[in-house]
Specification:
alpha+beta, FAD/NAD(P)-binding domain, 2 domains, 8-stranded mixed β-sheet, 19 strands, 31% strand
Length: 385
C-alpha cells in the first residue's frame, strides 16, 4: 500500500499536467501517473504547435473559457520563465455560411471581440500569398496564434513538481474502488505499481480514458489523425509573415496550419481520420495522406513550392457532439473525468484545470461546466463517429 494522498491524476498530457499543477498550487497532495514519459509523441499533446484563438468558431460558449485560458498561459509563462504563447494572428477563411466564418462572426458579436473583415482588395494586399475561392470570405482574428506544445506540457509538469506533486512515469492506472464511509470515505486507486489511498481521482488519460473509466455513458472514439510539415520553397512563411490559418474549403472540410517555427510549415486536415486503437495508431502517413494536404496547401498558397519534410500521427478523442466531457464519474463523485476534447482542447488546458479542481472540491466553478456533462448523452446516443 502506498502513502495516502489527496488526489491521483491519471494521464499527464497537457490537461493532466495542468490539473496536477493547479491542484498542487492549491495545497493538495498530488500524485500524477502516466504509463509513458511526457511530453511524448504517442497521444494528443505533441507536434510542436497548437492553435489558440478568441473568436471561437465551434460555439460561443467556449469564448469565456478561452479568454480565461489566455490568462492561464500568460501566468504559466510568468511562473516558468518560458515563452509559450505567440499571438501571430489568425486567418479564418471559407464559405460564408460554413461553420468557420459564421461561427467566428457569431462569437465575436456575442462577446464584443475584435474581428477584422478585409475586403478582397485589402486581403490581397495584406496577404498576397493567400488564395481563396470567389465564393469564400476571410475574417482575421488578431489575437489568435500558437502555443509551443511540448514546451507547454513540460512547463506544467515542472511547475507541478515545484509545488509538491509527485509525478510517476511508467506507471499506469488499473482501476479504483470506494472505501470507508463518512469522514473516512475515499478511494483505493490501483496502478501498475501499487495501490494509492486517495481522496479523489482525475481521469485525464486522453485516448485511453474510455478504457480506464469503465462507464457506458462515456462515449469516446479515438481517431488517428496526421500532422504534416512542409518546406515552403520560394516563400518565407515564418511567424512574421504567415499567421495561423483555418480554411473551410468545402462544408465541414477544414485545412489548418501554422507558420514555420523551425521544422517547416505545419498543416493538417481537421476532418477525416479513422477510428483507431490508441496503442496501434502509429502507422506512418501514406503517400495519399501527404499528397492530399500538399494539394490543399498548393491550392490556397500557390506562391510556394511545398516540399514534404515529415509527417506524424496524433490522436483525437471524439465525443458524439465534438464537445468536451468535464464531469464526475457516474459511479463516484470522487472521480472526475476530463476527456473527449475532440481535437480542440489543448488551448484550454489551464482553464480546464480550474474547473476540474473545483469539481473535486465540490465548489461551483467560475465557468459553468453544464454543457460538458455526461447526461447530455442519453442511452442509445451513437458513439463518437
Amino acid at each position: 500500500m502506498k502513502r495516502s494522498v489527496d488526489v491521483v491524476v491519471a494521464g499527464l498530457g497537457v490537461v493532466g499536467s495542468a490539473v496536477a499543477d493547479e491542484l498542487s498550487r492549491r495545497g493538495l497532495r498530488v500524485v500524477g501517473v502516466d504509463p509513458r514519459v511526457p511530453p511524448h509523441r504517442l497521444g494528443s499533446s505533441h507536434g510542436e504547435t497548437r492553435m489558440i484563438r478568441q473568436a471561437y468558431s465551434e460555439e460561443p460558449l467556449y469564448v469565456p473559457l478561452v479568454l480565461r485560458a489566455y490568462q492561464a498561459w500568460r501566468d504559466l509563462e510568468r511562473r516558468s520563465g518560458r515563452r509559450l504563447l505567440f499571438e501571430a494572428g489568425g486567418l479564418v477563411g471559407g464559405i460564408p455560411d460554413g461553420e468557420l466564418v459564421r461561427g467566428a462572426e457569431v462569437s465575436a458579436r456575442t462577446y464584443g471581440l475584435r474581428l477584422e473583415r478585409p475586403d478582397p482588395e485589402e486581403a490581397a494586399e495584406r496577404y498576397p500569398f493567400l488564395r481563396l475561392g470567389a465564393d469564400q470570405h476571410l475574417v482575421v482574428d488578431p489575437r489568435a496564434g500558437y502555443l509551443l506544445a511540448e514546451t507547454c506540457v513540460s512547463a506544467f509538469l515542472d511547475q507541478a513538481r515545484a509545488a509538491g506533486a509527485e509525478l510517476r512515469t511508467g506507471e499506469a492506472l488499473v482501476g479504483w474502488t470506494e472505501q470507508g464511509s463518512g469522514d473516512g470515505a475515499g478511494l483505493l486507486v490501483r496502478t501498475s505499481a501499487g495501490t494509492w489511498p486517495a481522496g479523489g481521482l482525475v481521469l485525464a488519460a486522453g485516448a485511453w480514458t474510455g478504457r480506464v473509466a469503465a462507464a457506458p455513458a462515456l462515449r469516446l472514439q479515438p481517431v488517428r489523425m496526421v500532422q504534416h510539415w512542409f518546406r515552403a520553397e520560394d516563400a518565407g512563411f515564418d511567424p512574421r509573415t504567415l499567421p495561423v490559418f483555418l480554411i473551410e474549403y468545402r462544408a465541414g472540410k477544414i485545412l489548418y496550419g501554422f507558420p514555420d517555427v523551425g521544422s517547416g510549415v505545419k498543416a493538417a486536415f481537421h476532418h477525416g481520420g479513422r477510428p483507431a486503437d490508441p496503442d496501434r495508431a502509429r502507422a506512418p502517413a501514406s503517400r495519399e495522406e501527404v499528397a492530399a494536404v500538399r494539394e490543399a496547401l498548393g491550392r490556397h498558397f500557390p506562391s510556394a513550392r511545398w516540399r514534404p519534410v515529415r509527417s506524424e500521427p496524433c490522436l483525437y478523442t471524439l465525443t458524439p457532439d465534438r464537445h468536451f466531457v468535464l464531469d464526475r464519474h457516474p459511479a463516484s463523485r470522487r472521480v472526475v473525468v476530463a476527456a473527449g476534447f475532440s481535437g480542440h482542447g489543448f488551448k484550454f488546458a489551464g482553464a480546464l484545470a480550474g474547473i476540474v479542481a473545483d469539481l473535486l472540491a465540490e465548489r461551483r466553478p467560475a465557468f459553468d461546466p453544464a454543457p460538458f456533462r455526461l447526461r447530455r448523452f442519453p442511452p442509445g446516443t451513437p458513439g463518437g463517429r
